[in-house]
């Protein structure tokens, strides 16, 4: 069978008037793609991290196309990660641009200092319950504080919802909520151009992590302590919806565009299945907590990229538990896993 790697690179059909502005980030993921739509209104998808180098690079990218930051009329955010929205506040102060983002995250974006710290505590509490040692949790706090230096609050002037349409003078984008990588992941579908602006929902060269975060509706969580964090389950459901779409290209937040989204989604699903089996094997081998599994599978990365690795493990554990393949017993405040 021919795999994506063997196939000749198909020509990428990026819609007219749309082009990437690639900015450096201080994060492991590397560069981030912003997508400029030279139409009316002049629209920028995502804003990059709040660093001087990212801002300079953006200014240069806009100048090459005959624009300035001050000309921006609309900023559209794909999700609430620092590498995607960090600079938005600064850009708005200079341009007065509208800010469109998923409505459920508007409160978070408008009050990021407080909300991101609250979210960190929410996540930490759950990780400790899954066997994360306190001293590792402290290290993760430091990493979190570092990330918080790369964004500032921004007011969402236009909260978006599933089914909305973003209008341009020469095209329209249909708005879809695709939670998983983050709770706010939003994709924009240009049906006529058969193109999807996808943020980090589906990336060509790295699989998008389904990160644990505070549920969008914190009140709901408080009312129902049994409510599960299901980032990976949400992500799989979101990918299934994207798989149904007829697309020639997905313009992502990192790396090159995706030209065969169905093959890539199938590849990602197969990788998830393999990892589920591996995790059951690790539990059978006597690794009792999620952190034990993280350490067994990722080694020192489990200490350095705590949030990422633990999200990966917990997402898979929830799927396994949902399928009745594993169970957890709470002993001294820590969840111990066993095969069923
Ligand atoms: Zn992201």
UniProtKB/TrEMBL annotation:
Report domain Metallo-beta-lactamase positions.
31-254
Q: What is this protein called?
A: Unannotated protein
InterPro entries linked:
Metallo-B-lactamas, RibonucZ/Hydroxyglut_hydro, Sec-metab_biosynth-thioest, WH-like_DNA-bd_sf
Q: Per UniProt, what is one Pfam family of this protein?
A: Lactamase_B
Originating species: freshwater metagenome
Instruction: Provide the organism lineage as a comma list.
Output: unclassified sequences, metagenomes, ecological metagenomes
